């Protein structure tokens, strides 16, 4: 009897690459900014905005991270299809964030819309990806998936609160984005381990 394919092997590469590209991208891009840039205060989007020093670094990082999420969604066969679709939409919206950069000053409605969709989908996808089967890998079981989805969504909520208050905007955004980048890797490696 043929063993069920829970995850395609190439999804291991995309899922593992996403948080490395994201965190590495914003870390390196921040070092290129002039004195006064503060990662605890300034957003990730500011690193790819028009007027940012070497904005291509963060733009490419966001493009690649978005592509990684789409690839991961395609290869994570064990997750429910609706969860995979929501993850892929989050990846496409991340690409949209990169393609609709912030202006030199002020905001951009299109950029904000893409960021809203990306954060929402990347936070919520575990809530609709879990499987009921006892043979399901641990990260895609109901309990861990719901807990992960709630934590990721709460982190996005914390970022939203910081946007309103103006306090630690960059820090709360990075915390939410890092968690959203890491969880798909955890899920993929859990599925891969169960598959073996």
Helix-strand blueprint:
Elements: H1 9-32, H2 44-48, H3 56-75, H4 81-99, H5 109-129, H6 142-165, H7 169-195
Describe this structure in words.
The protein has 196 residues and is mainly alpha-helical. The protein is built from seven helices and no strands. The chain has one domain. The two termini are 15 Å apart.
Strand content: under 5%
Extract low-pLDDT stretches. Answer: none
Structural class: mainly alpha
What gross morphology would you assign?
elongated
Short description:
The chain has helices at 9-32, 44-48, 56-75, 81-99, 109-129, 142-165, 169-195.
Give structural attributes:
single chain, mainly alpha, 0% strand, 196 residues
């Amino acid at each position: 009897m043929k063993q069920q394919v829970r995850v395609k092997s190439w999804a291991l590469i995309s899922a593992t690459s996403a948080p490395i590209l994201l965190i590495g991208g914003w870390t390196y891009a921040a070092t290129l900014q002039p004195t006064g840039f503060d990662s605890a205060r300034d957003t990730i989007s500011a690193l790819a905005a028009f007027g940012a020093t070497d904005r291509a670094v963060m733009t490419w990082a966001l493009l690649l991270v978005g592509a990684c999420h789409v690839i991961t969604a395609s290869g994570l066969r064990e997750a429910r299809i609706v969860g995979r679709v929501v993850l892929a939409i989050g990846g496409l919206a991340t690409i949209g964030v990169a393609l609709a950069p912030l202006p030199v000053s002020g905001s951009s409605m299109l950029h904000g819309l893409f960021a809203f969709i990306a954060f929402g989908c990347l936070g919520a996808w575990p809530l609709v990806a879990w499987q009921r089967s006892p043979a399901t890998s641990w990260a895609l079981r109901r309990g861990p998936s719901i807990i992960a989805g709630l934590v990721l969504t709460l982190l996005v909520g914390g970022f939203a609160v910081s946007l309103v208050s103006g306090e630690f905007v960059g820090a709360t955004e990075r915390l939410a984005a890092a968690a959203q980048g890491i969880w798909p890797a955890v899920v993929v490696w859990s599925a891969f381990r169960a598959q073996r």
